[in-house]
Amino acid sequence: MKLYHITLILTTVLIPLFSSCNDFLEEKVYTEYSPKALLSTQEGIDALLAGAYSRSRIVQYDSRNYTYLFNEFPTDIAFESGGGLERNAAPFINFTWSIDDQLLNSFWEKMYTAISSANSVINVVENIPNMSEQKINSALGEARFIRASSYYFLYNLFGTVPIIEISKDATPDEIEEIGSSTPRATKEQMIKYMVDDLVFASENLPEKEDPIGKATKGAALAVLTKLYMHERDWNNVAQTAKEIIDLNVYTLYGDYVKMFSIEGEDNKEFIYRAPCIAQPGYANNYMAHAFPPNYPIQSNWLNFGAQFRTYTAFYDTFAENDIRRKCFVTHYVDQSGTEVELLRSNGVALNNVRSFKYVPDPNAVGEKMGNDIVYVRYADILLCRAEALNELNGPNIESVQLINQIRNRAGIEAINLSDYPTKESLRDFILEERGREFFSEGLRREDLIRHHKFISNAIARGKKAQDYQELYPIPLRQLEANHNLKQNPGYSN
Known about the structure:
Elements: H1 4-10, H2 35-38, H3 42-56, H4 60-70, E1 78-81, H5 86-94, H6 102-125, H7 133-158, H8 172-181, H9 187-204, H10 217-230, H11 234-246, E2 270-274, H12 287-290, E3 307-310, H13 312-315, E4 328-329, E5 331-333, E6 339-341, E7 344-345, E8 348-349, E9 354-355, E10 373-377, H14 378-393, H15 397-409, H16 423-438, H17 444-450, H18 454-460, H19 476-481
Antiparallel strand pairs: 1-3, 2-10, 4-9, 5-6, 7-8
Helix pairs in contact: 1-8, 3-6, 3-7, 6-7, 7-9, 7-10, 9-10, 10-11, 11-14, 14-15, 14-16
């Protein structure tokens, strides 16, 4: 099979990516330099980095697929029905996904495009004369952060994947051969590769996020913390999370309900995010899926037939006075004046609660809203350290204090160390608290997997889930394109 699409993905070294951005979004046109001359300047490197950032952003429909279809709908928090999306979402809800699922393949290709762009930056920057070591390392730090985080997103879904590196003088035939023959890395190789990139990035990136969405020291350490969490490497989780805390850059945002609104974006809780604006290709389109039928929306908003619904049982896990409950709509009066219940009818769960965590953007354009999409925030880091310390030492006062920071912000009763006398009891509570804190953020699947409850949770909800489904299958198109690529156990070609 001719690997035309692989070649396209792996040859961005040869593609002129000469656009820069104001907050990575406003296009800048260069007219005074030849491509070769431009790439030897700071402006050229910034333009190349802007392309890499753009390709790595998981926004709009990519965010819908990764955050919800892949990582939340297979769990006990939410699901989807209605509209054309139901056909694509149902396999993830019911654990019947296939190896030729086009959405999984599309995400694979997107991340490798981002990885290729990051490698392009690395190849160019490492060979620029007359640039200071500090500037070179800063650009390399950004590129290696983009590369490592893209690999992490792939690793979260598929397990180990091929590590692709192409020399700057590779021919098209050599590039195609690399794409068609590189096997999956071993787990040890994969972890080391991502750790090395993220450590380098953390040592060479600034603490300040300027402009919004640019890689920082904190973002690199945050992704590193999440990687260590994935591996249950508790010593490194505890240490790296503390490094982030000790930066004294981040803090919990005071108003949980407003945090994901346009108004709340200027906060010190978001560590790693994708900046969004209400324009094609840069938007957050979550809310168009969350509005219930005939909901009284503004004239500039859009309400999709595809409906994202929250399970009543999950909503019931919140205390009545939990501020986080205010992010849900359980009842409304529709545009015809009819009262609509979404929680229960005659005592029967409707499983139709709506999460309005991303507060609708008043200046949206149809489905396109400007709410930034968050991958890691400070609350996650606090609970990561709390979980790691419990795994290392059993119930302890610091874990309880970290958890209570989250609960205090939610306006609910603090827990006491005596309430959780065993490691297992506190572990289970942390998992429950993470569900209440991070709903609609796509973290539930990885949390359940880490706690060995992803499959058992699905079976308890009536799904015919199998142990091997903790990982998604390597997409069939990739297996066909690379003869050395091996499928995950449990899936057949």
